[in-house]
Design a protein that fits this description.
The structure is a single chain. The chain is mostly helical. It is built from twelve helices and no strands. It is globular and about 65 Å long.
Length: 346
Amino acid sequence: MLRTDAARTGTAPRARLRWWTELPLIVLVYAAYSGGRLLVRGDVSGAVDHGLGILRIEKALYLNAEHPLNRLFTREAWLGVPADFWYASLHYLVTPAILVWLFRSRTVRYRAARTWLMTSTFIGLIGFTLLPTCPPRLLSSGHGFVDTMARYSDYGWWGGEASAPRGMGGMTNQYAAMPSLHVGWALWCGVMLWRHGGTRTAKAAGVAYPLLTTIVVMGTANHYFLDAVGGALVMGVGLLLAPLVMRYADVAKAWLAARTPAGPGTRWAAGADAVPAPVASASRDAGSSVVSAGCQTSPGERFPRQRESPTGPGAEPGATPADAGGGDSGWGVPTSGEAESLGKAR
């Protein structure tokens, strides 16, 4: 039997990714992210102060893209309504669709892309924890922002208090504006489309999607411009940390596999094509130069044409071939004297 590379090198092969393990992992990570957002809700006054602080920084830097975009989306319903649908839905549709597409058609790239996305998401959760920020739409009206989600709530499924479905606004953290993961996830989708799309249409979508998402989040008064910058920075840090995360994940898997007892005849947990230990041992014995390697006969079993040795009262199991009735080498070949006596007997 041929031995696999893993059997020759003594290392467990990398497991092939399966959808029934990937799906629960992604759901678990997203549930932890959503639950974490709820648990780290800061006080409203502090979140408002952080939002006003961002506005002051933007004013000092002569950045003021939010106000003109928000006025445009408020005045023109044909822009404001699609923008609200964009903000409330594509974030949760395009990102999973890109993940599924990578898993099915770009399997080699999937693990790194998934790790990058998840690492950046957890970094964003740290940002929500350390810097709860009030979005522009929740500031007092004196600051000049209009909540388009509330203004056009009759057109969609969301309520006036958040982009969540009606009646579920209290189940979301509305003071998690910094960083903008709407922009961060859109940037991740754009990079995946640009690098792996393979067509001009896919590359164009990879550029347009994050740019349009940035315009939407500001026009709907859900994020400041610096929130979008923060989302891009979070994705950059996640990209740098993703190889390290994968390396530590591999070390953890190897550590667990080494301490998991394997029953007789079981395969390595790391791969379905690994060689079981008994099979590998048998294959090594098959390649041995000793014919009877690993084989023993029972006390009453004889090979064909095997002579019974006259073991008398004085014979011992460890007697020499001469003591056993012949001066042969132990393989059942008669000596010359025995051959002569056999001839006379015939």
